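User
Here is a favour to ask of a fellow structure person. I am asking you to supply a protein in sequence and structure-token form. Please set it down just below, with no commentary around it:

Assistant
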Amino acid sequence: MSLEENRNVTRRLCERVWNQGDMTAIDELLAENFVDHVDFDRPWDREQYKQAWTQVRVIFPDLHGTIENLIAERDMVAGWITFRGTHKGELWGIPPTGRQVVYRQFVHQRIVDGKIVDNWGLADFASVRRQLEAKSAG
């Protein structure tokens, strides 16, 4: 596949799964042997990834990711995504606050035959926690 086709796989994941909450797209975009390496001690398979993103959509139902940049080389795509969403479900023991949160996430994916085989990422969850725990002004 071309570098642009590989970037488009990541773009489709962002639009369909992360932004629209279309979990059926996961089977289309992630390989059967997909591994998410975000939690280095306990990598996730495709089904666990689907469960995690289903829960994310409960916590932040209007979550929207904006791709800031994508770089592709060989079978790898990497980039920064800025996520915005409203906290509507419990997270880390914090009840829904109704607050808008913004955080960035770095993604690095290996794509083979039009499907994501490996995913690595680093998200600024410390920033999310600070935003949710912030005291209301006034």
Summary: The helical segments are 3-19, 24-29, 46-59, 125-133. Residues 33 and 61 are 28 Å apart (CA to CA). The mean pLDDT is 94. Residues 3-19 form the longest helix (17 residues).
